[in-house]
Fold these 2 entries.
Entry 1:
Amino acid sequence: MIQTNKTVYRKFLLILGVIALFFLPLAVTNPYVMYVINLILIYTLLALGLDLIVGYTGQVSVGHGAFFGIGAYVAAILSKNLGFSFWVNLPLSIILTALIGFIIGFIGLKLIEEYLVMATLAFGTIIWLVFLNWTDLTGGPMGIAGITPPPPIKIGTFEFVFFQYQDYYPLLLLFVFLGILVTRLIIRSGFGRACTAIRDDELAAQSMGIPVFKTKVIMFTISAAFCGAAGALYAHFLRVVSPETFTFSMSVTILTMVMIGGQGSIAGAVIGASILTVSSEALRETPELRMIIYGFLIVVMIMFFPKGIMGLFQLVKRRLQKRTIQTPETTPEKEGLSYEH
Amino acid sequence: MLNVQNLSTYYGQICALDNVSLRVEEREAVSVIGANGAGKSTLLKTIIGEIRPKTGDIQLSGKSIVKEKTFKLVSQGMSLVPEGRHVFPLLSVWDNLLLGGYTLPAKYRQQRAEKVTEPFPILRERKDQLAGLLSGGEQQMLAIARAMMTSPKLLLLDEPSMGLSPKLVFEVYDKITELHQQGTTILLVDQNAEMAIDFCSRGYVLMAGRLAGQGTKSELKESEIVQRSYLGSA
């Protein structure tokens, strides 16, 4: 009964927190701070997407910056050249990025891990060169400017506009919650468990009838779709896209977000995106230093905290719980933590 | 049920299996014994489609499966308990079992998990515990129960005694014998020749990738090569 009350109370607090988050622009009046918060939300969507393939399926990709770029450029080109609205561009960006993700996944996931990294690296570089050199379509180094913001939405007497950073924030927040919901649904489904099984032990997964390759390709496609959505949201948020955003360093940044936050954790993706976005802004003047720091952070995390900040948090939580539970009468053996081998 | 004909498997230029033929009849328990590196695990990996053979054929119930993918063989009635157990350490015992029933309709998985754990009461007791916290013997039992989730026609066991204390080896073999008595056809490979021969009705001896002998349980026990190489008597 106490437990049920506690759960209801927690859920109530969570809902209250979610609602409060939508009203954050009322408290944040500084447009730059609002801009950074919006970027955090876009990167959270990217980190969630990459985590599906890295954290839940165990396949490393360093090409997700390219998927992000494809989503952004598709939305930009459709908006600028064909005058399509955000609401048309968003699904088209998702579909096209997912399709390219499927093709890359289909080719790359046949390779073993190290070669998959190389393949996604090559893919990212090729896409960046396309953005840079296909001037007629992508605007070359100048990129594409003048992308229109999403058209206003009228609900009764209310009209939601998306012109200012503050206006765009609820839309981004909505998509992040949608992303979290989709991620939760996937990882709690049979398909999600199959992905986790592949991550943990591919041979065992295969011998239980899980179609390993097909499952990986589907997850890779979904992961790319997340980046496509983030790309379209990014293009209509900044209203300008240029190749320098979607370089190899973008892919590394997204991967660092996942590694620092904690692989295979939704909260980890949010934490990683928040830390990296804020630090990116802080190191804006010294981009070279930024990549050195990210590289160093990845090495430190792999060596000492392979499960990231969330893993560390879980470890501390478990230790504290154990300390509370463990009395002289309750030895580890009695708790079922140690058995004869 | 299983008919392996003239199977040769290579790792690059190295021949791991050379012209191996064997058969397993329905409801039979067949063992393959051999020293480390004899090709036992390669044989099982080739049968389940993880490694493609260079030559030869493998038939399950009369149908060639030599080009089938591993995951498809599960739906065709073959299940493998891999060497080293390969349980998912971060999933609970019960979740491991449910994953074993991946090819079954979701509504039957719980029911099937209840059924397969009947001979393994310890797994029921520890159903919510992480599989990584089980002892080696319990993990082996979990791996066997998980492989039984799909009600396989043929159960393949790779080194079920590996890394277990003698007491646990007996326990695991008791459970495998129980499953065989309930009607499961079993093909087992093990370095522990004594246990493997005691368990089987027929067996094969692999040496350096080649079949060095075969026969019934008593024939194997009396065979000079088995006596000399595996049972430790002259």
Note: Strands of chain B lie at 2-11, 14-24, 29-34, 55-60, 63-64, 78-81, 154-158, 185-190, 202-207, 210-216.
Entry 2:
Amino acid sequence: MSFYLVTYTILFLVVALIVFIELVAHQVIFKTGRMQRIFGHPLLRYSLRRIGSALISVLLAIIVTFFLIRATVDIDQLCLTTQFSTAFQKLPPAVVEARCDIFREQMGFNGGPFEQLMNFLYDIMPIPKTLCQSTNLLVDGVYYNSVQDCRFFLFDLGQIYSETVADLTHGPVYVIDYIGEKMMVSFPVGILAAVVQIVLGYPLGMLMAKRKDGVVDKIGKAYIISIDAIPGVAYYYIWMSIFVALFALPARYDVNNFLSWLPPVLTIGLTGMAGIALWVRRYMIDEFNSDYVKFARAKGLTEGRITRIHVFRNAIVPLVRTIPSAILGALLGSFYIERIYQINGIGDMLINANNAHDFFAVQGIVIVTALISIVSYLLGDIVTAIADPRISFTE
Amino acid sequence: MENEKETVISVRNLNVKFLSHGKKVHVIRDVSLDVYKGETLAIVGESGSGKSVFTKTFTGMLDANGYIDGGSVIIDGVDVSKFKKSKEWYGIRGKKIATIFQDPMTSLNPLLSIGYQISEVLRIHHGLSKKEAKEEAIKLLERVKIPNARKRYDDYPFQYSGGMRQRVVIAIALACRPEILICDEPTTALDVTVQTQILDLIKELQQEYNWTIIFITHDLGVVAKVADRIAVMYGGQIVEVGTAEDVFYRPAHPYTWALLSSLPQLGSKEEPLLYIKGNPPTFGDEIIGDAFAPRNEYAMRIDYILDPPMTKISDTHSAKTWLLDKNAPKVKKPSIIRNLRERMEIAAKELQKELGDYYE
């Protein structure tokens, strides 16, 4: 019960905050003063609008996914292959039919397409709800629903039914929980890799631009070009062989052994660094040639100050928008890298779910991916707008 | 009179070369010039005559492929042409010499507030605290006649018009508290009425702060308005130098004649507008003799063989032409030059009438 109270309170507060911000922005209340400055700030209202339109985009993406999956999945076939152990043909048709009816309902396939969509949307909407699922129990070649498992949901993305995706022997596994669990596997490696990319890429680009055609620039360019020229899969394996054969690092990721973190982190980091350095260098060289840098020099500013305050800051404006997506993208991991180093993260889960035709799992990952990319775009836009005063939040 | 003046910049036999596609290009060819304290020196010439490059050597701001190849630039007793590292320039740039560039639209950093860009200079050069720098910067903005300076302190360049931005650029130059101000075509990108305001402002500030101003321009109208002394540049050399009076009323070099003759303001409606035939030498052409000879209707055979010497006409006036040689034949100056004073007076009257109409 308390879950409901908390969730409704939070939902109510969110709605109240939106109404409040709109009222302040339209100067209905708090026409001047500090409250107006804080809550009437165009950035707040801009963000709200962007979140609103982003949510609509997510919803559309979800509906498209919903129909695509219904178009490709044969639910009756799926029932026969997953709900009966072997020779379901021997069972009386009525038993099969009755079992498949339950399965259909469990999977949200009962009723017409519109009803199905509405049920589905209700499940994924942030409306507090208690949903009951049942565990399959194998009796005489037929899986029966036995243990009722009821729990509170804010979002429900269905449950996993394929044993190759998740271990189902200890009760039902919910997609939303499972994705969360897998993200926690992908995230540490992903975020470290993102940090390595940024921490190495930006200074490298900066050094290359500052001493254009110098030694660092020449080595850097050679490195960037070789990363660019070799296909991704190839250099992932090249890195792997360097780390494993040359530095004797473990080839298999183990969360408890920090040394085994290095190969995946460095593989992503050292590869991604090249792209970042390339763009930082390019934008900084542009800025170094600009008139205001000449004027800054004429003002008597030191080269160091010009590089830091004037050139670097301006050069990264087109690049800061990629930072939120780099950080949030870490939640999803890299499919290749997770395969190569056997990290059981999201990438690994998606491949398994896809092979097993576990459509709730696939659908769940698609929805979460869409959500993450839309949120990163939004954050990217906001960060860019903060970095560049020429971008205005008002229309 | 010349001896009483204090020399602030003394350039002797300066040569600047650029390395372009593996070839050395001679851009400034053996130029000597003195700049006196408190004067306004205008350097005029066509695009590509080397006037900007020449002044860039005073602040060490040649492009990366350019270098000084002989000669000296002495500022305050120090030969800055020998400077190698950017550190050596910190005492000159901004502190002693400030520069205003042609395009105010691009001279300011678009992502930093106007206030920051002014107070930055005050904090670095004069060690003011953030708060002091802000107050001082607002005073400077008011000094260059930015309305609502306090309110506009936090605005960004894109919120200012072109003329206002050039005022901000001037305010930044003011913040440097320099002795010498180099104005590199400061009004070219502005429309005529704003040009006049900016020139007036610069003149006003010059009197207040006793600046020495080096004005680079190809606009002889601007020169007539501001200059005490004029140096005419052609093909990387100074071909004539003298007071404004000398150069406008007693021009001695055929290039100066041609320049003045082609001023539309000085032509009359009956005569066709004159122009200088041919093109200025492009850098990379090997110049033998007088660079202007191919376009010069008064050119003699020697002009194609030997570079003319700088010949002194009076204490203040010299020109670099063989026509001043004692063996040269007497030539008749073009008609516009002969009655230049009358034509100028007529032009001034017409301009006044036009401006009168404009302001009504």
Note: The interface with chain B takes residues 290-292, 294-303, 305, 309-310, 313-314, 317, 387-390 of chain A (CB under 8 Å).
